[in-house]
Specification:
9 strands; 2 helices; 8-stranded antiparallel β-barrel; about 160 residues
Length: about 160
């Protein structure tokens, strides 16, 4: 099993143990919190670390941008990326659309559409897994091949 896949399965099992009864429920004095499309929807600022190539081997790229998750299941991001080997190289900003879902356990998926890249390749055709934490004010997300991970903070 790939290390990132093993991590994601472990994260899901750990998260389920705490979120099956709602976030904060195991802690005294806390009211259970369940995620829904409505509670997780909103505008998010994110940062992400990635590697070009497969299996996390290749040139490092850093991304920053905005993520919009609509309660109707639509997702959109706009971002800029920088290659670490040449910080002067700015990747073309892109707006990429997709879809998303979230379970009441606060585990979810975002699936982005394919968009042509500036080099004739593709920017995205990727599925991310995420967990919403801190009563859906922060997201941790990851995907495998290429290895990408990041976090997002709610802006609205």
């Amino acid at each position: 099993m790939k290390p990132v896949a093993a991590f994601l399965y472990g994260l899901a099992a750990f998260a389920f143990s705490f979120t099956a009864a709602g976030q904060d429920a195991p802690f005294p004095g806390k009211t259970p919190f369940f995620c829904s499309m409505k509670t997780v929807s909103g505008i998010w600022a994110f940062n992400e670390d990635s590697k070009t190539g497969t299996q996390g081997v290749g040139e490092a790229i850093a991304f920053v941008g905005f993520l919009k998750l609509s309660a109707d299941g639509k997702a959109a991001i706009q971002y800029r990326g920088y290659r670490t080997s040449n910080p002067e190289t700015l990747r073309t900003p892109a707006v990429i659309n997709g879809t998303w879902t979230v379970a009441d356990s606060c585990l979810g998926e975002i699936d982005f559409d394919t968009v042509p890249g500036e080099d004739g390749g593709v920017h995205m055709d990727q599925k991310f897994v995420f967990i919403a934490v801190e009563r859906a004010t922060e997201l941790f997300f990851a995907r495998n091949d290429p290895v990408e991970k990041g976090r997002a903070k709610r802006l609205d």
